[in-house]
Structure formats: structure tokens, C-alpha cells
Amino acid sequence: MVDAVLTSPTSSPLLQLLEDYSKQTLKHYNRTLVHRGVCVSRCGQAAADGDWREAAQLCVNQSVLQYGLEARVISADWCSSPSSDLPSSSGRFLAVVCIALLVLAVLATALHILGECCTTVEGNKYLLAFSLKRNWAILMYDRSKPRTDDRMKNLTSMEGIRFIGIQCVIFSHVLWIYVYSYIDNPQFVEKMYDHLGWKLVLNSPLWLQAFFSLSGFLTAYSVLVCSETSPFTFAKCLLSIANRWIRLTPVAVFALWFTMSWFPLLGSGPQWAWLVAREAHDCTQRWWYHVLYAHNHIPLGKMCMGHTWYLAVDMQLHVALALALPLVLRWRRMAALAFAAIALASILAPAAVAYLSQLTPIITAQPPE
């Protein structure tokens, strides 16, 4: 995989056209760069030190000579091949964890079924938490029949909104692989930025504000309902934060662990090392950011599992809300003023950052290049 920059020994109207076109960086690729997959042994021999860059240079030059241009190689990466390498110690330990979870699920499900058939069989509540039958019942539970307060059934429509919203999130993330990898038709991606439907997808991070609003509303609403019978103290505030961390972290860490240990072994090819192996390497170096839910502050280009930025932001907002709720419940007359001030600050802060740093306030997360 060769990256090269186009040059011309003489004045070239074509190269000037490509440079002018590439100046629109928000919507256009840098067309003065070319990316080629080349079989270097067809173009030349390796140098005495085993370096194939000169042969790669000849390969790329041959592909652009017909346009009166030359190409200067700036980087070259080798295509990865399927290997028979065994998983690392981390990967083997993950396999042990998966087998243990499978055994627990089988035992818990069998015990659950026996417990319903035989009254003499009693199940341990911690073991039954792994029962497939019980978890299926929880997943399919009718949300219009709340287990606690009847007022919670008024929120059932939000379950549908969140479900539809998460389908849109999955849909948009599936498409990003065609943007992040090399493509044969870059003009198709460039035209996406002028299409209304694609503009909505490309600005999907803005749509996720709806998830944050729903999450905050549901947390506040449930706390207000429960505080009628049991006061929401600072200790319960800390328990709420711990409960959310415990609820989210095992699944998030499992996905992170899989990305670091097994994902690189599942494929190969010219772009595999660039997309997948690099992701695993970045996760290995910065996994603790994910455990602390601070990975949304990692600089672009260094973040792994970038789609999980939402979890970090959601956790941070939950901590802020949990700390604010005891104060709001104590001084309710100040609640409207306090939340209005927070909302106003959250609107003015990004506006100020965009203005002072001269940022483009929209479509900044996914430029083509």
C-alpha cells in the first residue's frame, strides 16, 4: 500500500486544478495524494539493504505518467497475510472467560428450568442472573407494566424512541468503513456532503443530544418518584454512580478486550494493518481511559473504538446530574434557575470555542481526507 504525492517537473494545469479542488477540505479529498496497491516485484528489484521503496516508486510513476505527472512515495505499508499465530496470553485468558460465561449460562438455565419443574430445587440468585430464560424474560418484558410506580408506565414511549435511535446509530456507523478505508470512487463520498439525507447522517453526533436529554430526564424523573418515599441523599448519589459504572463496564471492557486480543486475528489484507491492527494497538495503550470513561478526551487519531465516545459523555453527564440532584431536591425553588443557567452555558460554550478558535461549527468530525 503506497501513498504518494503528485508532482510535475514543469508547469501543469492539471496539477493546479487538483490543488485548487483540494482546497475545499471539508468536502473534498486531497486529490494531490494518490494511494495505490502495487505488486512491487513487477516493477523492479529490492535494493541491497532489502528496501523496495525504489521499486514502489517506479510502480506508482508508471500509473500517472499518462497524465504528464510524477509521483513521489511518502509512505509504504506491506499487505498482511493470514497467519497461524496463536492468540496472545491476553487472548487466551479471554477465551477462558468466554468458556466460563458459557458454562455459567448453561448451568443457570438448567437450574432455572429445574426450579420451575421441581419445587425442591432452589436456585442461587447470583447464579440465576446468568439464566438465558430469565434474561430473555427481562428483555421481552412489557414496559407498560412497571414493576414499581405506576407513573413509570408513562415513559414507555421513550423505550421506542431510544430503540429507533440506536438503530440509526448502528446504521450510520456501519457506513463509516467505506469512508475510513481507501475507495475506488472518492467522488461518490464527496457528493454525499451536498445531499440532505447524508448531511443528517454526517452530523449524527448532534442527533445524539436526544439520547443525553432522554437519559438525564429518565434519571431525574425516577429519582423524583423514589424520593417521595426515600430521601435521595449524597450516599445514594454515590451509589447511583457506582451502579451505572458496574452496569456498563463489564460489557464495554469485554468489547475492548476483544478488540485488543482477537480482532486482529480475524482477517488480513492490504488495509487490515492500517485499520484493525492499529485500532488494537491504540486500545492496548489507552484501555484505562475506557475504564474511567474519559476516552472522549483522547486527541483525534489516538482514540480507539471511537464509536464508544457516547458512553464516556453519558457517564460524565450522569455523574454531574447525580451530584446536582441532592442540591435540587433540597432547594427546589432554585432548580429552574440552576438548570436554565446550565443549559445556557452549554449553548454558549461551544459557540465561544468555535468563534475564538475560528472553527467551522458543523460537519467537522468527518471530512473525507
From TrEMBL:
Top-level division of the source organism's lineage: Eukaryota
KW Lipoprotein (keyword) present: no
InterPro entries: Acyl_transf_3_dom, O2_lipid_transport_reg
Keyword Transmembrane helix part of the UniProt annotation: yes
Transmembrane segments: 93-114, 163-183, 206-224, 245-265, 309-329, 336-356
Annotated PANTHER family: O-ACYLTRANSFERASE, O-ACYLTRANSFERASE LIKE PROTEIN
Entry protein name: Acyltransferase 3 domain-containing protein
Organism: Iphiclides podalirius
